[in-house]
Amino acid sequence: MSQSTKGYKIRRIYELCLAGLTIEVGLLFIVQVWALFSMGEKAFSRASVAEYFVPISPFFFLWLAGIVGGAVLWQIFPAQKRAVLPVIEPSVTLKKLSARLGENYQSKQAKKRLIVAVACAIVAVACAVVATLYLTGNYEAKAQTGFFASHNEAERLLRAMPWVIGGLCALTFASYYHSFSAQKEISVIKAEIIENAKKGVKVKKRVQTPTILEKIPFLKSKWFMVGVRAGLGVLAVVLIIVGIANGGMADVLEKAINICTQCIGLG
Amino acid sequence: MKKFFRKIKDWFVKHKPSKRKVVQLYAALLYNANIKGFFNGRIYKGATKNMCVPGLNCYSCPGAIGSCPLGALQNALSASKTKTPAYIFGIIILFGLLLGRTICGWLCPVGLGQELLYKIKTPKVKKSRFTRVLSYLKYVLLVALVVIVPLYFAIPGFCEYICPAGTFEGGLGLLSNVENEGLLAILGPLFTWKFTLLVLIIVASIFCFRCFCRFLCPLGALYGFFCRVAMLGVKLDKNKCTDCGLCVGVCKMDIKRVGDHECIHCGACIAVCPAKAISWKGEKLLIRANDADMPASTEIKPLTSMLKRKEEISAEKNNDEE
């Protein structure tokens, strides 16, 4: 076994062990804090925190030692330099390749991609609307005992969450379908280009339609950007002055010099 | 003995932090310069808290000398029925215009913490289409917790339910001091939830690069709107770009192209671009092109194939013009 292969195997084993230990230590912290919370009202005190967290401290220190050990291990068995692999969006490759097939090329997959994209967008928007209704509507949480009894807004967030996840799932599906469909079309186009080359068929490249930016050159000019930046700068300064005048700045100070109980978890 | 000390010296030279890391560290120390607060367990009450710091830094941290822009925004929106939140809007527009998401890459202590955690040697989760879609979750949190919840319920939704900076800097920072023993007694379900989330984010950051910044941070989402107009950051020269994809390949964020709303302007892409199409905005004023944050363990694939491709593209362009 060569030195580099041996080093690679040792590093991999170390990485997997440290990953397992990291997850274990994280879970221990979470389990202990919930166990402490379940002791009832006023469960948190210096003594009780010590009682629950001191027993897991050896695992934590072992984890820290593992991190230091990893740094030493990487010096003994240094990792090989990895080449940077390019990442090109399939849509970019598809656009370039399909242009080589000329004006008459009609994509069969494009319609399917559009239908899937529109359908997933509709689902995502519907999920967003429902989630917003749960957040802002007249829904009244029933008085319940337990974790969220005194936090109506927390229960609203919990009810909105599945809809947010649903929307994200729809968008994920659309993204993966787009990539899969584009890859499929790319292989078909490549085969067609090779076929054309073998037959000696010469196709005039399709000229790309200019974008809105290209149709209005002023939008790409340096002065447009200077104007936008100047406008935003003036707006920012005006808003700050207005804010100082109407007491907004004083409110920021007032909030910042008192402990934000919500921020630190006191509610 | 000399050899040993030389090896130590070589190790330090090889592992010296990049300029970006040093700037991040200075920013984190500057935002939390009230060292006295860590000892006496009290937060700073000085006039500098009128100003917001650009990055995410809880103002309940005992060391914090400035306000958190996200917390200030939520509080201003909570009180928006009586007062227009002009001041905080102006501050955020100013930060976005001047720096944009360069703040995330250079001036945010939470980002620094995550990058240091990512250095721990474990298997890593690579970016994919799924992480790209998940990166839009932070916009959902921006709308739901930073805008809707403060407007409708007059509470800082993100600070209360999610923000790990508040739990770590404010919560643990204050509660660890003996002076604040009284606060321990009133901890309850909210702290338990936030502590759990903090631990999950810390563990996730070890496996996934900047997972909080990519998926959860509404401040990054807000600054991302300024990606085109921000005066500092990386820029792509489309005339020189050959679409080789190396910049996207080397980037650990979920970018589609350099300088988009996911780009944190770390500069790692500048060194790998074979066509030298990526540079810094404002480079004549502030940053030299060779101050990029090049990862130490990468090498650029043989340039010959990339240069050949560049020649092919220019030959095609010439043919088209004819």
SSE layout and pairing:
The complex is a heterodimer of chains A (267) and B (322).
Chain A: H1 3-37, H2 46-53, H3 57-76, E1 82-83, H4 90-99, H5 108-136, H6 152-199, H7 212-215, H8 222-245, H9 248-256
Chain B: H1 2-14, H2 19-31, H3 35-40, H4 69-78, H5 86-98, H6 102-106, H7 109-118, H8 129-134, H9 137-153, H10 157-161, H11 164-175, H12 181-184, H13 189-207, H14 211-215, H15 218-224, E1 233-236, H16 246-250, H17 268-272, E2 278-281, E3 298-299, H18 303-321
Antiparallel strand pairs in B: 1-2
Helix pairs in contact in B: 4-5, 4-9, 7-13, 9-15, 11-13
* Helical run tally of chain B: 18
| Overall pLDDT score of chain B | 86
Number of strands of chain B: 3
Order of helices and strands of chain A: HHHEHHHHHH
Structural class of chain A: mainly alpha
Report the sheet with the most strands of chain B, covering strand number, pairing sense and barrel closure.
Answer: 2 strands, antiparallel
Number of helices of chain A: 9
Spans of chain B of 5+ residues with little confidence (pLDDT < 50)? Answer: 287-304
Total number of β-strand segments of chain A?
Answer: 1
- Tell me the span between the first and last alpha carbons of chain A: 59 Å
How much helix, percentage-wise, in residues of chain A?
over 70%
Overall geometric form of chain A: extended
Helix share of residues of chain B? Answer: 40-55%
Per the principal axes of the C-alpha atoms, what is the gross shape of chain B? globular
β-sheet strand percentage of chain B:
under 5%
